[in-house]
Predict the structure.
Amino acid sequence: MEGAAYLTSFQVMKNKLYGSFSFSFANNSQSIDSLDLKSRLGQYNLALKGGYNLVAKKDWVLSTYLGLRLFRFRHVTHNSNRRIDLDQFLANPSIDLRVSQFSAVGGINVIFDINDFWSAGLYLDYVQNLHRTPIVKVKRNRINSNIKNPIDHLLIGMGMGFGFSEWR
C-alpha cells in the first residue's frame, strides 16, 4: 500500500476571538496483481471553526469553538490493463464510490508558544453528524443505504505551526 497525507490549517486570534480553517488530504493506492486491479482510496476533510479564547497567557492559549466539518471518502477500483475484453470487465467492473458526511463540531484547542514564530498544539473535537447516514454516490447516481457513519464522535489531533504569536 502506497500513500501520502497532507494537512494544512490557518488559525487567527484577535483579542478573545478564535477562528480556524483546516484542510486535510490522504491518498492510498494498492495493486491487486492476481486480479489485474488497481485500487485507490482518497479521503479529505474541510473544517471551519470559530470560538473564544478562554485563557490567553504569555506562552499558551486555550480556546473553545464550534464549527462545521465535511468528511469525504472516494474509492476507485479499475483494471490495470488499458484494454480489456467484456468478460474481464463484467468479472471485475470499475467502481467509483464516494461517501460524504457533514458534521457539526465543538471542541477545545490548546496552543503552546515555543518562540516568536513556532508553536505546538493539541485539539479535541466532538463530532455530531448532521444526517443519520452518510451520503453514498457513484459518478452519476446517489445510492440509498443504511451504512454506519464512517467517523466516530471524537477526533484528537496535534500539530506544529509557524506564524506570529500575538495573543499575549
